[in-house]
Design goal:
This protein is an alpha/beta fold. It contains 25 helices and 22 strands. It has 5 domains: about 200 residues, 3-Layer(aba) Sandwich (Rossmann fold); about 130 residues, P-loop containing nucleotide triphosphate hydrolases (Rossmann fold), CATH 3.40.50; about 90 residues, Winged helix-like DNA-binding domain superfamily/Winged helix DNA-binding domain (Arc Repressor Mutant, subunit A, Orthogonal Bundle); about 80 residues; about 60 residues, Arc Repressor Mutant, subunit A. Keywords: ATP-binding, DNA-binding, Helicase, Hydrolase, Isomerase, Metal-binding, Nucleotide-binding.
Amino acid sequence: MNNSIHVILKQYWGFDDFRPLQEDIIQSVLQGRDTLALMPTGGGKSICFQVPAMVQEGICIVISPLIALMKDQIEHLRSKGIEAIAIYSGMNYREVDIALDNCIFGKIKFLYIAPERFYSDLVRERIKYMKVNLFAIDEAHCISQWGYDFRPSYLQLSELREAHPTIPILALTASATPRVVDDIQERLDFKAKNVFSKSFARPNLGYMALAEENKMNRMLRVVKKIGGSGVVYVRNRRETQEVARFLLNHGVPSDFYHAGLGMKEREAKQNAWTSNKIRVIVATNAFGMGIDKPDVRFVIHIDIPDSLEAYYQEAGRAGRDGKKAFPVLLYQQEDRDKLWKNFQDSFPSVQFIQQAYHYLANHYQIAYGAGKNITVDFDLVEFAKKYKLEVLPTMSALKFLERDGWLSLSEAVFIPSRFKFEIDFQDLYKFQIQAAKYDPLIKAILRTYGGVFDFFVPINEFEFAKKLGVPYETIVQLLEALQKQQIGTYLKSTDKPQLTFLQPRVDYKNLFIDADFIRERKDVKEEQIKAIYHFLDTKSCRSNAILEYFGEKIGETCGECDLCLKRKHTDGVESRIEQEIRILLLEKPLTLHELIDNISVGDDQKKLNLLRELVDDSKVALNGDTYSWVAN
């Protein structure tokens, strides 16, 4: 078996050896043991489930909340000749039905499922008939209410046991406190505790947390001084453009990135950065997952992250090549105050949550007793504006409604248009003869895509319009007409989150909301905010503050963070002041003013403080008005 995993690693990934911990985790899974893998960002988590899945017969089911990352991994697997598909919000019943059938009867090796899709009876029922060899739960901290990114949709995942009781679960996360580590294993019903953990220490990273009034100028100085490639994280989409423009205006090749951009535009920007055509990418936290760029020399945060876990993950994208790199957090008192206000706004009253549910049902014109399993495109900003609600409390209200099983909400992601023929080849040929106006488009689809009779394929209406020399609107009309005549099924693209009502609508006054859970969750979040404040306020060592938070024993200071470097500089100045005092006083006794004026380094206060210490230590003697060095 040991030989097999190395053969697979070399054959599909081209590596001769595993990274630290990877082989231990894989062997644990192959022995049928439930396993929790704690591996910092860039540690190669996906290899830990992809290799054992390839060694064994059957399919690996991967649960991931990050649709963009799912798509990325599927593309990588397919490029290696490995069959993989995904099921996420935005796909209709028929698409899901066909995908699940392919997992049961086809040659699919990896099925990626968004956690909210696990609410579906169809998905849970079909999984029972699959030959599953492993369940992989990515971003596993999301299952814990003590985790920094708790997602209610993860709570259903323990039911995977019911479908395949003997199949091991591999839970993966980049960051978790000791309490979260225990909670993950308990909630996933691990048969026995089994954790593989890599140290959270990153010795090559020099963490900096700098109080700064002019953050833009300080950022520019950092970018120019450190050099190389880097990421600047900001809080919203507007800031990405403003900061990128500022850097460009000051001669730094930069671009912006956020989830609201089209897929092709995001890919182009990402590729330009990874290939070093631009130096700096300014992004929201939508950027970075699954990107393994080793030579990132700096990661700058212009806003304070919501938790130390989130900061550690984002900062950890720097220096994956093991060379010196700098995560820099720039902040003002105003940022600290805003973080606390956002925390308070994230926990609305039960009455507010009930009212938001009432407005939501009205917004989609859902009758009382109706609406179960209806999925709709959801625009949070438009909804909040229509009903005069604040955005942050409204978003939080939806999360609590999701936790209590009333609805599920996916992340915003671009889902391309899809098409599938619903008749066989012979009948399609007859249709082409009878309806000549559809013939060019049908031929173009058949030439461009394989498998379009068996499953939905992503299509690009603009490409077909260009090929056929007709307007985009004409292509859309033809595709819609093919669907109307039941020749094919056409599903339009979307880039909005998908909201699904999981229960029939009830009167909002009878809507059950778990108020105790909200209070508990608020306590957890407050701890996380205070941990970030502690990281900013510590006087000792940034790296040790992170290690302590994640439950690791702390030893000596790192010597690389801003606090350690400041101490080194201070220690160096004090050493030089003492050396000059010794030389001057060995030559002859001096008055205080003569001595202070002749010391060439440090400010007067440092000189006076050190002189007092030397007198207290009996290294310097005061005789009347003059000081002299006391021989050792």
